[in-house]
Amino acid sequence: MEATWNLWLTIIACGVVTFLIRLSFIALHERVAMPDWFTRALTFVPVAVLSAITLPEIVIQNNALVASPFNARIIAALLAVLVAWRTKNVWATIGVGMAALWGIQILIK
């Protein structure tokens, strides 16, 4: 029973710490002047997080690296990157990426 309480206290403590870290950027944003280099660096956070989430899904299948140029996911991802770069439109990027993935998977089968 004590292990259960320790687990819950740990989860709650982690949640509170995470909340306070995120709140600090919101609450202190206007009160503290951030250096320019820091503000510029923050613009890359969404791209870095999205890349960290999606890249393993693209190149790892069945616990193995699949870096073949015939990997449907890689081809679809490259097309989506091209659309994102040219249009700067999230919905077009998602639409083209998914349509390309589904189309390539249909053609391969």
Report on this model:
By secondary structure, this protein is mainly α. The chain folds into 2 domains: 32 residues; 64 residues, no CATH class. It is 76% helix and 4% strand. The chain contains 5 helices and 2 strands, in the order H-H-H-E-E-H-H. It has a two-stranded antiparallel ribbon. Strand 1 and strand 2 form a beta hairpin. Helix 4 runs antiparallel to helix 5. The longest helix is centred in the first third of the chain and has 26 residues. The radius of gyration is 21 Å and the shape is flat. 4% of the residues are buried. The mean pLDDT is 90.
Features:
109 residues; 2 domains; two-stranded antiparallel ribbon; flat
**Assembly state:** single chain
Number of strands: 2
- Described by the principal axes of the CA atoms, the overall outline is flat
- Helical content stands at over 70%
Distance between the termini: 53 Å
Low-confidence stretches: none
Q: How can the largest sheet be summarized?
A: 2 strands, antiparallel
Query: How many DSSP helices?
Result: 5
Mean pLDDT: 90
* Number of self-contained structural domains: 2
Computed CA radius of gyration, to the nearest angstrom: 21 Å
Fraction of residues in β-strands: under 5%
Strand order of the largest sheet: 1-2
Following the backbone from N to C, one meets helices and strands in this order, namely HHHEEHH
Structure summarized in a few sentences:
The chain contains five helices and two strands; from the N terminus they run αααββαα. It has 109 residues and is mainly α. It folds into two domains: 1-32; 45-108, no CATH class.
